[in-house]
Amino acid sequence: MTESVYKVIELVGTSTESWEKAASAAVARAGESLRDLRIAEVVDLDMQIQDGAVSAYRARVRVSFKYEGGD
Predict the structure, then answer these.
(1) What is the rounded distance in angstroms from the CA atom of residue 9 to the CA atom of residue 6?
(2) Over 60: is that where the pLDDT of 71 sits?
(3) Does the residue 71 lie in any domain?
(4) What is the pLDDT of residue 67?
(5) pLDDT digits (tens, 9 = 90+) for 29-42
(6) How far apart are CA 6 and CA 4, in angstroms?
(7) The sheet that has 6-15: what strands, in order across it?
(8) What whole-number distance in Å separates Cα of residue 13 and Cα of residue 23?
(9) How far apart are the first and last CA of the chain?
């Protein structure tokens, strides 16, 4: 069996609709430039408030992908 190494990065996705869409936006964007995504872990949720109302949902997400070298 060969060993594998995975790199973990942290992203913040935003949505005006929900935390789920915010997290999905972060993963979708990561998928545009990273190959072999493995795990996405939501580590924090918060909201932006404007004029006393929620204006955006934010999800901080840790995404792991297979590490192939470089930085």
Answers:
(1) 10
(2) no
(3) no
(4) 83
(5) 999 999 889 899 99
(6) 7
(7) 6-15, 53-66, 37-50
(8) 5
(9) 25
pTM of structure: 0.84
Is there a domain that residue 1 lies in?
A: no
Nearest C-alpha neighbor of 63 from the set 18, 19, 15, 6: 6
Domain count, the chain: 1
Domain that holds residue 26: 6-66
Res. 51: pLDDT tops 90: yes
Per the rule left: phi > 0, alpha: psi between -120 and 50, beta: everything else, 52 is left
- Say if residue 27's pLDDT is above 80: yes
Q: Which CATH number covers residue 39?
A: 3.30.1660.10
